[in-house]
Amino acid sequence: MTTRTVLVINSGSSSIKYQLVDPDSGASLASGLVERIGEPEGAIKHKHGEDVTELTGPVADHGAGLTEVLRLFDEKGPTLTEANIVAVGHRVVQGGKHFSGPALIDDDVVATIERLVPLGPLHNPAHLKGIEVGRKLLSDVPHVAVFDTAFFQDLPEEAARYALNREVADAYEIRRYGAHGTSHQYVSGVVADMLGRNDLKQVVLHLGNGASASAVVGAHAVETSMGLTPLEGLVMGGRTGDIDPAAVFHLTRVAGKSVDEIDHLFNRESGMKGLAGDNDMRAVWARINAGESQAREAMDIYLHRLVKYVGAYTAVMGGLEALTFTAGIGENDANLRAELCERLAYMGMRIDGEANALHSAEARIISTPESTVTVLVVPTNEELAIARQAMTLVQG
Ligand code: AMP
Questions:
Q1: For 47, phi and psi rounded to 5 degrees?
Q2: How wide is the angle at C-alpha 90 spanned by C-alphas 17 and 69, nearest 5°?
Q3: Domain residue limits at 60
Q4: What are phi and psi of 354, to 5 degrees?
Q5: Number of structural domains, the chain?
Q6: Quick one: pLDDT at residue 26?
């Protein structure tokens, strides 16, 4: 079969992350990052095999950034024609209740993503920039939007609906949309394949700078920890996760803070950063090892939240057969995995210390054969998942 590739674009407010993926083999042919778009000194890094090109200099806007990336593909390879590019896949965080799967991008889809900006104010405007310049500069191939919320579109209503006044909730589309759905779907699919089961009751813990948990039965998500926005749920690098919304009233009335200030406080200055002084888990462990009691307390709060979610999701599913760790912390932090599983030992969960300590980029089982729950580490690969979904949509 001739190689077919998909260019996956994750466009941020001042960055464009990209990867050229062969969805059939799963290989990444090239990847790169444009950073600090619109700032005086931008940077572009393009990787093709062992060959890495780094450029610095101003990148005026997303259009200029992508033009430069396409030039690098031509100059440094692989050329997109040689690579037989058949689609461009765009990551989109917020699809609201409109998209339960990938969508072929046309003007209507763009208008809908635009209409959803109030629900995804940090992400959707940036994705729209990437889509606009992408469609202009790569007009020969179809463009596909893959939504972070899609996997959670079929959450049972009892999980998706808040107990908020129905009229207000419906008028303003306030419900639990979830996020990281592409990762949860991909990882739970890998677990089902590895264990050879399509009816598993599983929990996936996507623990990165942003963090979320999902409960998946068979191929369907039945619960997830992120809500209307990615603020809800687990303790994260800089986000509070669950907090009584009355804290907002209190900070408004008593501390005189504005909504924007509270937004910043909850989304950027809280979580591990606000509790331990650092949002990077490696730095938090270093503080713990140096004897900082607040860092240890922060870790306990982080773990306590995870114990609550795993327990709650086990109850929701009526059992738990597989627990999987993914993303930056989930894939790399053996200490944290060991401490969490120790706290879950009441379930009959048993970790194999050696397997857990192993550093590997492979998906693997880290529990003992006696463990009542299979515990796994599965590296997430959102780019591959986006490429596969885009390919399936355009070529079947
Ligand atoms: P992500 O958002 O998935 O890219 O994850 C980024 C986060 O992973 C960083 O902020 C770190 O907290 C965490 N991380 C990366 N490597 C390690 C490691 N070796 N040990 C602990 N945490 C790590």
A1: -115, 125
A2: 40
A3: 5-147
A4: -65, -45
A5: 2
A6: 94
**Is 264 part of any known ligand binding site?**
no
250 is in an annotated binding site: no
Q: Report the pocket of ligand 1 as residue ranges, CB < 6 Å.
A: 208-209, 237, 279-282, 327-329, 332-333
Q: Tell me the mean pLDDT in the region 25-40.
A: 95
Buried b (16+ CB within 10 A) or exposed e, 177-195: bbbbbbbbbbbbbbbbebe
Distance CA 280, CA 277 (A): 9
Q: Which of 24, 74, 107, 148 is catalytic?
A: 148
pLDDT at position 120: 87
- Quote the CA–CA distance of 88 and 69 in Å, as a whole number: 14
Residues 341 and 263 in one domain: yes
- Is 133 in the same domain as 269? no
pTM of the model: 0.95
- pLDDT band for position 1 (cuts 50, 70, 90): low
For the chain, the average pLDDT equals 96
CA of 205 to the centre of ligand 1 (A): 13
Rounded distance from Cα 172 to ligand 1 centre (Å): 35
Q: Can you give the pLDDT at residue 233? A: 98
Cβ atoms 391, 6 nearer than 8 A: yes
- Looking at the structure, do residues 237 and 345 belong to the same domain, yes or no? yes
**From CA 380, how far away is CA 369, in angstroms rounded?**
24
**Residue 352 annotated as catalytic:** no
Residue where the block lists tokens 């990077």: 280
Ligand 1 atom nearest residue 283's Cα:
12
Q: Which protein residue has the closest C-alpha to ligand 1 atom 11?
A: 280
User: What does the alpha-carbon distance between residue 255 and residue 258 come to, in Å, rounded to a whole number?
Assistant: 9
